[in-house]
Amino acid sequence: MISLQNLRERLRVGAGTEFELASVDPDYTFGFDKVTAKEARKPELDRLSDLQDRLWAQDKQAVLVVLQGIDTSGKDGTIRKVAGAFNPQGCAVSSFKVPTPEELSHDFLWRVHRRVPGKGLVGIFNRSHYEDVLVVRVHSLVPEDVWRARYEQIRNFERLLHGTGTRIVKFMLHISRDEQRERLQARYDDPAKHWKFSLGDLDERKRWDDYIAAYQDALVETSTEDAPWYVIPANRKWFRNLAVARILAETLTEMAPDYPPAPDLPANLLIE
Ligand code: AMP
Ligand code: MG
Fold first, then answer.
1. pTM check: above 0.85
2. Ligand 2 centre from 96 Cα, in Å?
3. 192-251 pLDDT, tens per residue?
4. Rg of the chain over all Cα atoms, to the nearest angstrom
C-alpha cells in the first residue's frame, strides 16, 4: 500500500545539508500512478479547504506559497488544481513578470513585500523575488556581487515574515529538459496555447544548464527551517498536484488554525 507519509520530508531541501538538484528525478512518483494519485489528492484538497476556512475565521496567521520553475514547469496548472480548494475570498494569486520601470526604481523586494498576504489569507506567488537570483543571474542583469548579496537579503526578509505570523512554503517544480521540449512543442502545435508560446522561451531553453545552476544555488542558500524549499518532481502533472496539495495540507495542519471562541450566548435562543 502506497502511503504519503514521509513525502514532505523526502522532497524537502534540508537546511544546511548537501543537496543536489541533479539527483532529483523529475519522473519520480513515490509509487503512485495517475489513478491512485488522483484518489489520494481528493482528501488532501478537502483538508486544505477546511483548514483555509479556519485560517480565515481565525484571522491571525497567513500562508505564503512561492511557486518557481523553469518555463512550462506547470506553475499555472498547479495553481488551477490546488488553489481550486480555496475559497477565493481568502486567497490571492500574484504573478511577477519583468519589472516595470517603477518597480526597478525600488529595491527588488519592494513589489514583493506589498503582495505578501495579510492575516487570515493565503497568498500564492506565481514567480517571485527568486527571479532576482535566477533570470537576473542567468542574463547578468545586475553585477554578481549584487545578486549574490540577495541570498542573505531574502533570508532576512523571509525571517521577518515568519516572525510576524506568515508561514512560507516554497515549491520548485522540477521537469526534465525532454519534458520541456514536449510541452513547448505542444504549445506551438495547439492554436489554443499560442498565447503561452513565445520565441523567447526557446532562447531561455538554450540556457537550461545556467538555470539549473542558478536554481541549485538558490535552493541551497535559501532553504531554511522557517521557509523551506520543496523540489517537486513535476514531469507527471498528477504527481506534482498531489505532492503540492499534500505538503500544503500538512503545513496548514501544523499551523493549527481554529475558529475563534464562540461569544457568550444565552441558552435556547429562538430567532423570530
Ligand atoms: P511568464 O511567467 O511566462 O508570464 O513570464 C514572465 C517573465 O517575467 C519570465 O520570463 C520571467 O523570467 C520574467 N521576470 C519575472 N521576474 C523578473 C525579474 N525580477 N527580472 C527580470 N525578469 C523577470
Ligand atoms: Mg512564459
1. yes
2. 11
3. 999 999 999 999 999 999 999 999 999 999 999 999 999 999 999 999 999 999 999 999
4. 20
DSSP annotation of 33: -
**Residues comprising the chain, all counted:** 272
100 in contact with ligand 1, CB cutoff 6 A: no
What are the DSSP calls for 172-230, one per residue?
A: EEE--HHHHHHHHHHHHH-GGGGGG--HHHHHHHHTHHHHHHHHHHHHHHH--SSS-EE
Residue having the nearest C-alpha atom to atom 8 of ligand 1: 97
C-alpha cell recorded at residue 36 = 491512485
Give the bridge partners for 168, in sequence order: 64
Q: How many helices (H) and strands (E) does the chain have?
A: 11, 6
Quick check: 223 and 3 in contact, CB under 8 A?
A: no
